[in-house]
Amino acid sequence: MSDIKRIVLTGGPCAGKTTALVRVIEHFSSHGYKVFTIPEVPTMFTQAGMNYLTDNKDFFYEGEKATLEIQLALEDKFYRMAQACNTPAVIVCDRGAMDISAYMTPELWSKITGELGVTTHQLRDERYDAVLHLVSAADGAEQFYTTSNNAQRLEKADEQGLAIARQLDKKVIAAWTGHAHLRVINNHEDFDAKLNRVLKEISHVLGLPQPIEEERKYIVELDGELPDSIKSDIVQTYLVSEPGCEVRLRRRGFDGKYVYVHTTKKMISPTEQLVTERQLNSNLYTSLLQQADPYRQTIHKVRHSFIWKGQFFELDTFLKPISNLMILETKGIEHQESVKFPPFIKVLEDITGNTRYYNYNLAIKRD
User: Fold this and answer.
1) In sequence order, what DSSP letters do the residues of 290-329 get, joined into one string?
2) What pTM value is reported for the model?
3) Which parts of the chain have pLDDT scores under 50?
């Protein structure tokens, strides 16, 4: 099969990856997919005698280098196996290459990738079709945090261990930041809701129609410092499209580096839509800008993404074509759940479902 999707399932300690993998195998196997799963290589290495906390720098270096080599080799071998299948296939990795980078210095990561002849851009942006990050139970679901299901876990269920787990969670997200389809999966009051979000995101990557769901949105003001957020610069251009279809180009910048994504949203029925995304190179992005909708302006905004008490938020500050507008959007919070607003956010108005504030409508040119 030519269209084989590779998906990373990652997250901080005690995030629910093991349970999610079982659900993914059951769900997509029943839908006719051959599901391949790549085991978590660092856990394999730890069980085999590797000590990632060693003070021996040479031992640590060789172990981390070998970890990345085996990770890539396993993924490549299973990809070739998937190509030989006569049924649709999906490869789900229990952590991916960039997870390894979160546990070492940037200098050491650069040295290892250089010796192996690969780059961060290749491993993060080009190798996988989607990265799903499950938030650690240590952040917002502390009552469910446990080390009993993984004897290799070093972050214990005390205050110090929870703090370490939260920090690791953020390091892993930062390692993957820049991937065009990075999705952060919240903790929920009902764990099944977390698992269902995983299934939904994978279905989205596989091009399966999904129910239309409104994320909650609020006009807000910032009332204090914004801690531990990931900042990105977003330029969004809408293209000419057929009725019932929304086509968008997005340039998203992180620390001077850019990712270009083409997104199409097509209504399948009044309650379902099909969303497809593909990453572009800068030349194709520039070429497609020639198809910009003449009736809409380009949107420019700055986004801060952050986790607060296990819930994921995106805070957009609009620069063009409007200014003095700040919109906070929730991600994956169930309708029956309450939003845990951070103390540094002042909510001015709930605009959930208000089409006036859809980006597509904010871009309309006005006399």
Assistant:
1) GGB-TTBPPEEEEEEEEEETTEEEEEEEEEES--SEEEEE
2) 0.80
3) 1, 140-141, 143-146, 148-155
Contact 237, 63 (CB under 8 A): no
| C-beta pairs of 46-49 under 8 Å, 24+ apart in sequence | 46/152, 47/152
For the chain, percent helix, then strand, then coil, each to nearest 5? 35, 30, 35
C-alpha 367/C-alpha 352 separation (Å) is 27
Predicted local distance difference test score (pLDDT) of residue 217: 96
Task: State how far the Cα of 284 lies from the Cα of 279, in Å rounded to an integer.
Answer: 10
Q: 181 — phi, psi (to 5°)?
A: -125, 55
Q: What is the pLDDT of residue 135?
A: 86
- Confidence (pLDDT) at 189: 62
Residue 77: the pLDDT is: 97
CA 127 to CA 122: how far, in whole Å? 6
Question: Measured between alpha carbons, how far is 147 from 142 in angstroms, rounded to an integer?
Answer: 12
Burial (Cβ within 10 Å: 0-12, 13-18, ≥19) of residue 243: exposed
Nearest partner of 73 among 61, 62, 65, judged by Cα: 65
Contacts of residue 65, defined as CB under 8 A and 6 or more positions apart, other chains included, come to: 112, 115, 116
List of residues 6+ apart from 299 with CB closer than 8 A = 234, 235, 236, 237, 318, 320, 321, 359, 362, 363
Query: By C-alpha distance, which of 184, 17, 169, 171 is closest to 109?
Result: 171
Please, what's the b/e burial string for 108-122 (b: 16 or more CB within 10 A of its CB; e: otherwise)?
A: bbeebbeeeeeebee
How many beta carbons lie within 10 A of that of residue 144, not counting itself? 12
Tokens found for residue 32: 């006719």
Q: Residue 218: what pLDDT?
A: 97
Helix (H) or strand (E) holding 211: strand 210-211
Q: What pLDDT, on a 0 to 100 scale, did the predictor assign at position 158?
A: 52
Residue among 12, 313, 314, 308 at smallest CA distance from 134:
12
User: Integer distance in angstroms from the first to the last C-alpha of the chain?
Assistant: 51
What's the 3-state SS for 73-132?
Answer: HHHHHHHHHHHCCCCCEEEEEECCHHHHHCCCCHHHHHHHHHHHCCCHHHHHHHCCCEEE
The Cα 202–Cα 9 span in angstroms is 10
